[in-house]
Amino acid sequence: QWVDYSTLVSCGYDNTIRVWTENDDDFECLQELKVHESIVWSVDYSQGYMMSMSSDLSVGLWRRDTESGKF
Question: What is the 3-state secondary structure (H, E, C) of 5-69?
Fold first, then answer.
């Protein structure tokens, strides 16, 4: 899920959410969130907030810090 033109959020089978930021022509991991106990199936971003959904039947909601870009 694109957050803005230089930030991307991903999720996966390793139970994590990662925030990626563009660095020249490549992306580097800015933040890794290990908040779910099972596969993270979905992330969505809107108006400064990120939501995630996991197989552990939990939903996460985070607000993005505008200075650091982290959640």
Answer: CCEEEEECCCCCEEEEEEECCEEEEEEEECCCCCCEEEEEEECCEEEEEECCCCEEEEECCCCCC
pLDDT in tens, 9-39: 999 999 999 999 988 889 999 999 999 999 9
Give residue 49's Cα distance to chain centre.
Answer: 10
Q: Which two tokens stand for residue 20?
A: 């990626």
Amino acid at position 56, single letter: D
What are the distances in angstroms from CA 12 to CA 33, 38, 40, 42? 11, 9, 5, 8
β-sheet with 26-33: strand ranges across? 2-4, 7-11, 17-23, 26-33
Total-model pTM: 0.85
